[in-house]
Amino acid sequence: MLKAIFWDNDGVLVDTEHLYFRATQQVLDEYANIALNREDFVRLSLQQGRSVFALASERGFDAAQCEQMRQKRNALYAQLLAREAEAIDGVEETLQTLSGQIQMAIVTSSLGEHFDIIHHRTGLLKYFDFWLTRETYQHTKPDPEPYLSALERSGLNRSECLVIEDTERGLKAALAAGIACLVIPGELTRDHDFTGACKILQDIRQLPAFLGMESGALP
Q1: Is 99 helix (H, G, I), strand (E, B) or coil?
Q2: According to DSSP H, which parts of the chain are helical?
Q3: Does residue 195 share a domain with residue 148?
Q4: Does one domain contain both 69 and 98?
Q5: Judging by DSSP bridges, how do beta strands 180-183 and 199-200 pair with one another?
Q6: CATH number of the domain that 130 lies in?
Q7: What is the pLDDT along the chain (219 residues), one digit of tens a residue?
């Protein structure tokens, strides 16, 4: 019996990945003269879970310089989030439908400061029992640690949980933790390989019907 959903945040609940790309692109161009394209961003960040600043390292920038660029990117990203972060269409109505029927948590690679800015704007946290941000664990997705941490926090078995993701790295993290994963691809990930997903949906509003929870009946 399904008892909990572990939600990814960026790209599933909120439309922020394009803002992260813009901030990273601007900083790499300004400080390293690197023209980051969408394909490299998606490959490194969303598929492999690697830092895009590896591109700067490959150009001879040392660890301190890359860290300085990362901090500048984080500050710029925070500014963009404060102005532009929005919930994805259909998210709040879906959460309202599921609320009270099942335990829900957010498991994200976002830094806590960015997560707080995002959800100060969205007001979505009232639907969740708990949330885990990047500071919560040592290894981020595609490592299974984030979802293993969520399992421990929930007190449930793997078979009682479902992960909702939008990226290959997120899917890999869920499967490595032994949890079934449903994928809702976003604009940047629609053509990715989601082999192993239990289901691929095109719109979050399809989720309650898939789970059989529109009328409050658990699957």
Answers
A1: coil
A2: 17-32, 38-41, 54-58, 63-84, 91-98, 112-122, 145-154, 168-176, 207-211
A3: yes
A4: no
A5: parallel
A6: 3.40.50.1000
A7: 999 999 999 999 999 999 999 999 999 999 999 999 999 998 998 888 888 999 999 999 999 999 999 999 999 999 999 999 999 999 999 999 999 999 999 999 999 999 999 999 999 999 999 999 999 999 999 999 999 999 999 999 999 999 999 999 999 999 999 999 999 999 889 889 999 999 999 999 999 999 998 754 444
Number of structural domains (the chain) is 2
Under 8 Å CB-to-CB from 13, ≥6 apart: which residues?
Answer: 7, 87, 88, 91, 106, 122, 124
Same domain, 91 and 174: yes
Is 217 within the bounds of a domain?
no
**The model's pTM:** 0.91
- Shared domain for 79 and 119, answered yes or no, is no
The residue segments making up the domain with residue 94 are 4-15+86-211
